[in-house]
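Summarise what follows for lecture notes:
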Amino acid sequence: MRFGAVFPTTEIGNDPIAVRDFAQAAESLGYVRLTAYDHVLGAEHADRTPPLTGPYTQHDPFHEPIVLFGYLAGLTSTIDLATGVLILPQRQAVLVAKQAAEVDLLSGGRLVLGVGTGWNHVEYTALGTSFGSRARRMEEQVGVLRALWGDELVDFNGEFHHIDRAALVPRPSRPIPVWFGGSKLGSLRRAARIGDGFIFGRSGPTVVEALTTLRSLLVEQVRDPATFGSEMLIDYALGPDTWHEHADAFEQAGGSIVSMRAMSTGSAYMKVPVPNFSSPAQHVEALEVFMREMGERT
């Protein structure tokens, strides 16, 4: 089993040295992946139709993950940099292709582009994109991304994207892996058809059940589950006994990466204990404690 760390974006603060120190600590401790969340805007939840049901509001700070990874690409050397997940349908696919290619080049091939549809319709509206068509748009976007990354000249005509004999230069030196996230069966089906991996946003029996379903869907698509990656996020405040229990079950089900999350933001929404950390140093200490407890499994 390999271990990753969730970048504590809502609690790390704005000091670039603290951001650097967290990433470098994770790398030096043997974490193989740094996973960063994405939100461009937070929105007030009150008096919304339809309601906003996600865990974040206008008070929660988010570092922009692509820019963050451009910064960390030069400050780290081995740890993978994963978006978990980039809300792809509210962004321009061609621009994402360019940004992702640049980060992958500058990091020496360490970007994992995790994508999803999100839940914040206010954010979609502010960015000038359609919330209702987000799933269809995302599927087409993945095709656009891969064409731009891999082809010398792209001529693409779809429902949402039209590229007239154009090229992305420089292109990445390898196919950038595209992972999906989500909590519905449709997300698992989409990943089984066109994804390279899946990010599960929590841990426990429901994740093991979902992973088992995903592996069956991969077989239906005549794909080898052994070559398909999976990441499970586990909450630090659950404690060592639960870490071992959930990691054991995930590993036995075929999971490949367990990533530790220590942010208090979202804990109530996820119905897990609250760590209540108040400084970047405490987040670094949590990296040390978790790896000391779990690292012997690597």
Observations:
- The two ends are 5 Å apart (CA to CA).
- The beta strands are 2-6, 33-36, 80-87, 111-116, 154-157, 162-166, 178-181, 197-200, 229-235, 257-261.
- The chain has ten helices and ten strands.
